[in-house]
Amino acid sequence: MNRIVSKEQFSANVTKLVVEAPLIAKARRAGHFVIVRCGDKGERIPLTIADSDVKQGTITLVIQAVGESTKKICALNPGDCLTDVVGPLGQATHIQNYGTVLCCGGGVGVAPLLPIIRAMKAAGNRVVSVLAGRSKDLIILEKEVRESSDDVIIMTDDGSYGKQGLVTAGVEEVIKREKVDYCVTIGPAIMMKFVAKLTKEYNVPTEASLNAIMVDGTGMCGACRVTVGGKTRFVCVEGPEFDAHQIDFDELMMRLKGAQ
């Protein structure tokens, strides 16, 4: 059992939970995820670790309530417990000093992007972050992102906060004004597809996180298979991050649509 230490409601459907998991907090690195289960018969849910506190022995999870299992997890309160928290799983993000790194996240994709932003900054990079959402209330973790970024651009579909437009408008603004050496994108598949299309035009190496397609989290179910560079890859054991210019996003979106 892993006790919920604190809870914060980002929006009607997005919740942040700080959970006791001392061993995971100590071992995790940017890009890692955990499998959580609520109840003895609960569904296994893969969630990227948004943050950790080694001294407190906690990890931070950001959950979007989209189905029965995630709604049940989001309904937990401080003092309640998750039945299982297993991890860290997956391959950690490759961190190095690239120069200028552009990090763009959409919606809840900002949660798994945050530890990458922090790690890239700690490695000596200039970090420019672009956060996007449909409206102001869907922009999350802005304060934390700003603390580890040299510049932050906010894009909202409705113009209620920051600049009006899609994430790609913010990405292109940065690429046109300065040399970008590397890009990381996490968010809805359609968003990552067009970010990758744009950065490919400008010859900016880009990686994308495909954590949304994971189910089992151990590579046994095969539900997370994707085509990268013409080869079948398994997101939960070989990823979740891959070369965005090599991902077959159309196939990925078709499979995600079929899983809904």
Short précis:
The protein is of the alpha/beta class and 260 residues long. The protein is 27% helix and 33% strand.
Structure characterization notes:
The protein is α/β, with parallel strands linked by helices and 260 residues long. It has 2 domains: 2-89, Elongation Factor Tu (Ef-tu), domain 3 (Beta Barrel); 100-259, 3-Layer(aba) Sandwich (Rossmann fold), CATH 3.40.50. 27% of the residues lie in helices and 33% in strands. Strands 6-1-2-5-4-3-7 form a 7-stranded antiparallel β-sheet. It has a 7-stranded mixed β-sheet with strand order 11-10-9-8-12-13-16, with helices on both faces. Strands 14-15 form a two-stranded antiparallel ribbon. The longest helix has 13 residues, at 110-122.
Question: Secondary-structure blueprint of this entry?
Answer:
Blueprint: E1 2-9, E2 14-20, H1 22-27, E3 33-37, E4 45-53, E5 58-64, H2 68-74, E6 81-82, E7 84-89, E8 100-106, H3 110-122, E9 126-133, H4 142-147, E10 151-156, E11 163-164, H5 167-177, E12 182-186, H6 189-201, E13 206-209, E14 225-228, E15 231-234, H7 235-238, E16 241-243, H8 249-259
Parallel strand pairs: 8-9, 8-12, 9-10, 10-11, 12-13
Antiparallel strand pairs: 1-2, 1-6, 2-5, 3-4, 3-7, 4-5, 13-16, 14-15
